[in-house]
Design goal:
Elements: H1 6-15, E1 20-24, H2 28-42, E2 46-50, E3 54-57, H3 70-79, E4 85-88, H4 99-115, E5 118-122, H5 130-133, E6 136-140, H6 146-161, E7 167-169, H7 172-182, H8 187-201, E8 203-205, H9 209-220, E9 226-228, H10 242-256, H11 258-263, E10 271-276, H12 282-293, E11 297-300, H13 312-326, E12 330-334, H14 338-341, H15 351-365, E13 370-376, H16 384-387, E14 394-398, H17 403-416, H18 426-432, H19 438-455, H20 461-470, H21 474-477, H22 479-490, E15 494-495
Parallel strand pairs: 1-5, 1-6, 2-4, 4-5, 7-8, 10-13, 10-14, 11-12, 12-13, 14-15
Antiparallel strand pairs: 2-3, 9-11
Helix pairs in contact: 1-2, 3-4, 6-8, 7-9, 8-9, 13-15, 17-18, 17-19, 18-20, 19-20
């Protein structure tokens, strides 16, 4: 269950006799704040159980006698005469537990159901025995909103101002940028980053934005599942792909004003699949789209998901998707999609199929503004379920560049390396490099630069033509594979070129 108003939804569930709530999310402190507000609203006492202290009422000192063992704490709850909320910390380390613990857990749930109270666990979902799993209701706590983050900044400023002189010198646009950079982090992570930035020089200014972005990148990449990809390209640096550009331009206004689009009857785009010849700009397009739409870019490396422990791969995938949703609106780039969901592979014990099922369900059910940009080179390994209409908004095929595009690609790479393309016959080189991909043309330029530097010469047409003649492009060495790709794409995709 996704929470738009977690307080109201949690209260409704408890009053509807749902005695066991699992609040999913990394922000445990925020979950506890929510439960304090919930207890106040419902006028119920709030207890917290831990193995270190046992049962403790939140607003009182001391713990309840002999409740450090979970079984004894559950006995106490099952015998109570008053409804209450019980936050159980560390369940993941004590469940499924013995048959006695499971029996007492069931008795405690029965008692809370009758009294309209609840047992609650906050954090990663514990492994539950079947007898408890059927009685648990999962709530996903959304990440801090923009308003909450603005309130946090004001709170930190007021708190630090009591001890020393500090100032915030951010324009409205810079404050918006700061809040966007904090989206997806927990309140505690945001508080630590902001406090450090202010304490370093007594101010929060535009000069801190890069450091805050870098700190967020370290947090996002901590688990090794997602990467904050450097966004440096724009479509001005990509030749060809006119059909893809046009499709994206028609959705730019929607992405920049999603609320206005919803009022107009439009929904946030689901995503696209870019299949095609390696080296023709699929990965470059992912970075460019994020730049054009002014959205953060997260890259998912499928190989980082897989773990030798049973169930851990699926858990990794769910955590990655939850982080992407917390950071929404965002572009989620899944590179070489076939590596994550390859069809016909049985040696992984069915893990690929289970992850595929999780991904398809997430694609169907998600409500967060996450645009999925998937790329694929080996389409034969893509499961048929992924290609079904409605999974992606569109399937594009990226082919080898035509002569005009090859000429522009050469100019882009020459300019990028401080070379003047006006002194080079790019039209001749483009004509002689038929069948070259964008990546291969870039390597032609790089190799010519090495040769020119070594010989103390300028990069000219002759050097570039020599490198073209020395290169055997993929269209020659893998011609059958490329023809199969084109045949597959002919009836299934739209041309991106």
């Amino acid at each position: 269950m996704s929470l738009s108003d977690p307080l109201t939804d949690a209260e409704l569930l408890i009053r509807s006799r749902h005695p066991f709530l699992l609040i999913e999310g990394e922000d445990r402190s925020r979950s506890r704040d929510l439960l304090r507000l919930l207890a106040d609203r419902m006028e119920l006492p709030l207890f917290r159980w831990s193995r270190a202290r046992g049962l403790v009422r939140i607003d009182r000192d001391g713990s309840i006698y002999e409740t450090r063992e979970l079984e004894k704490a559950l006995r106490h709850i099952a015998a109570t005469e008053q409804p209450a909320l019980y936050l159980l910390d560390g369940l993941e380390s004590v469940l499924p537990g013995s048959a006695l613990v499971q029996s007492k857990f069931t008795e405690a749930l029965d008692r809370m159901e009758a009294l309209r109270g609840a047992l609650i666990h906050a954090g990663p979902s514990p492994e539950l025995p079947a007898s408890l799993r059927s009685r648990a209701t999962t709530l996903r706590l959304p990440g801090p909103s923009r308003e909450e983050l603005r309130d946090l900044i004001a709170h930190i400023y007021r708190d630090l101002s009591k001890r020393k002189h500090v100032e915030i010198s951010l324009s409205r646009a810079e404050m918006d940028q700061l809040v966007n950079q904090l989206l997806g982090l927990t309140m505690m992570e945001s508080e630590k980053i902001l406090t450090r930035a202010i304490l370093e020089d007594g101010a929060l200014s535009a000069g801190d934005l890069d450091g805050i972005a870098a700190a967020k990148r370290r947090i996002v990449e901590r688990d090794g599942l997602l990467e904050y990809y450097p966004v440096e390209e724009s479509f001005a640096q990509i030749a060809d792909l006119e059909n893809l550009r046009d499709w994206l331009r028609r959705r730019t206004a929607l992405v920049r004003d999603p609320e206005g689009a919803r009022e107009f009857g439009l929904t946030f785009p689901k995503g696209i699949l870019l299949a095609g010849v390696p080296g023709c700009g699929k990965s470059l397009s992912a970075r460019a789209i994020a730049t054009e739409w002014r959205l953060p870019l997260l890259k998912l490396d499928p190989s980082a998901l897989y773990n030798r422990y049973v169930g851990e791969t699926e858990s990794n995938f769910r955590r990655a998707m939850e982080l992407a949703e917390r950071m929404a609106p965002v572009v989620l780039w899944i590179d070489e999609l076939e590596k994550a969901f390859a069809s016909g592979e049985s040696e992984d014990g069915g893990v690929s199929r289970r992850v595929l099922g999780t991904f398809l369900n997430w694609m169907q059910e998600r409500t967060a503004d996450v645009f999925v940009l998937a790329t694929a080179n080996d389409v034969d390994r893509l499961p048929a379920e992924l290609m079904r209409k409605g999974r992606f908004d569109e399937l594009f095929f990226v082919d080898l560049p035509d002569p005009k595009s090859r000429e522009e690609i050469l100019r882009i790479h020459l300019r990028r390396r401080n070379q003047d393309p006006s002194g080079v016959d790019t039209a001749l080189i483009a004509e002689k490099s038929k069948g070259f991909s964008g990546a291969e043309l870039e390597q032609v330029v790089v190799s010519a630069l090495y040769a020119a530097f070594a010989d103390g010469e300028a990069v000219d047409t002759r050097l570039l033509m020599r490198e073209v003649g020395a290169t055997r492009p993929l269209s020659v060495t893998a011609s059958e594979r490329i023809e199969r790709l084109r045949a597959w794409a002919r009836e299934r995709t739209v041309s991106a070129n």
